[in-house]
Design goal:
single chain; 264 residues; alpha/beta; 8-stranded mixed beta sheet; 8 strands; 36% helix; 14% strand
Length: 264
C-alpha cells in the first residue's frame, strides 16, 4: 500500500496500533487498513465501543476543564495517542502541556501540528517508566515541578498487565508532583460478568500483541493508592460530572470508569 506522507518510514503498516485503532473509533483519519480491520472486528461484536470511546474523550475534556478552572496550568498527557479535536492545549489556553506516546505515528503527527504552538512538547517514550519520562529534556524544560501538575492516564492503563505493576506507575508520576497535583484516570472494565458479545469483542484484544485488561471500579480505585479521589469518585466514564451537551451514552451498561485524584 502507498505510505502516507505523515507516516514515519520505519513503521509496519500491517500491524495494528492501539493509538491508531482509538483514532479510528473516534472517526479520525490517521489510521491504516490493519487498524481499521482490527477495529471492525471489535465493532462487529460490540458496536457501542465507538460511542464509549467518544465518552472517554468527553470525560477527558471535562476533567481538564475542571482542573484548569481550579488553577492547574501544567499537564502531562501519558499515552496521548493521535491528536484529535479537544486536545489538552486547546482546553488550557496559556497552559503548558507535554504529550507522551510510544507510537511513531502519534509522535510524528503531534510534533507536526504542535511545531508552532508555544508551551507544548511531544515526547517519544514509554509511559511505563515514569522516571525516564520525567527526566526527558522536554519535560524538564517545560514543566515546573514547584507548581501543581496534572498527570493524565486516559484509557491507557488497561494495556498494562498486573505484572507490570500499574499502581506503581501511577504512584511514580504522582510522587513527582507537589500537593495540589492531580491524576486523571480512565480505564476499561466493569463490575459485572461480560455478556457473550462483550466477551467476543474483548477476545479480539486478548489475541492481539496489546491485550486489554478489564478492571472493575474497586481495582481502578486501588491504582490511585493514597491519593484523594475527588467527587463523584470512581464512576462510569459518562457519569463523571456529566455535561448535558455531551452525547447520550449508548446504553446503561458502562464498559469503563473514570476518576480524578488529588495529591494532598
Amino acid at each position: 500500500m502507498e505510505r502516507p506522507s505523515w507516516a514515519p518510514a520505519d513503521i509496519d503498516l500491517d500491524q495494528p496500533s492501539v493509538a491508531r485503532v482509538y483514532d479510528y473509533y473516534l472517526g479520525g483519519s490517521h489510521n491504516f487498513a490493519a487498524d481499521r480491520a482490527f477495529a471492525e472486528q471489535v465493532l462487529k461484536f460490540m458496536p457501542a465501543v465507538a460511542a464509549l470511546t467518544r465518552s472517554n474523550r468527553a470525560f477527558l475534556r471535562r476533567a481538564v476543564s475542571m482542573l484548569s478552572a481550579q488553577g492547574v496550568r501544567q499537564f502531562i498527557d501519558l499515552g496521548s495517542g493521535i491528536p484529535t479535536v479537544g486536545n489538552i492545549h486547546e482546553l488550557v489556553p496559556g497552559g503548558k502541556v507535554v504529550y507522551v506516546d510510544n507510537d511513531p505515528v502519534a509522535v510524528a503527527h503531534s510534533r507536526a501540528i504542535l511545531a508552532e504552538v508555544p508551551d507544548t512538547a511531544v515526547v517519544a517514550a514509554d509511559l511505563r517508566a515514569p522516571a525516564d519520562v520525567l527526566a526527558t529534556p522536554e519535560v524538564q524544560r517545560l514543566i515546573d515541578f514547584t507548581q501543581p501538575v496534572a498527570f493524565v492516564l486516559a484509557a491507557v492503563l488497561h494495556f498494562v498487565p498486573d505484572e507490570e505493576r500499574p499502581a506503581d506507575i501511577v504512584s511514580g508520576y504522582a510522587a513527582a508532583g507537589i500537593p495540589g497535583s492531580h491524576v486523571v484516570l480512565s480505564h476499561a472494565g466493569l463490575d459485572r460478568p461480560l455478556t457473550p458479545a462483550e466477551d467476543a469483542a474483548w477476545e479480539v484484544y486478548r489475541k492481539s500483541p496489546t491485550p486489554l485488561i478489564l478492571r472493575g471500579s474497586d481495582e481502578v480505585r486501588k491504582l490511585l493508592g493514597d491519593l484523594t479521589i475527588v467527587d463523584p469518585g470512581v464512576v462510569a466514564t459518562y457519569d463523571w460530572r456529566p455535561d448535558p451537551d455531551d452525547e447520550t451514552p449508548p446504553d446503561g451498561n458502562a464498559i469503563g470508569c473514570a476518576a480524578v485524584a488529588r495529591k494532598d
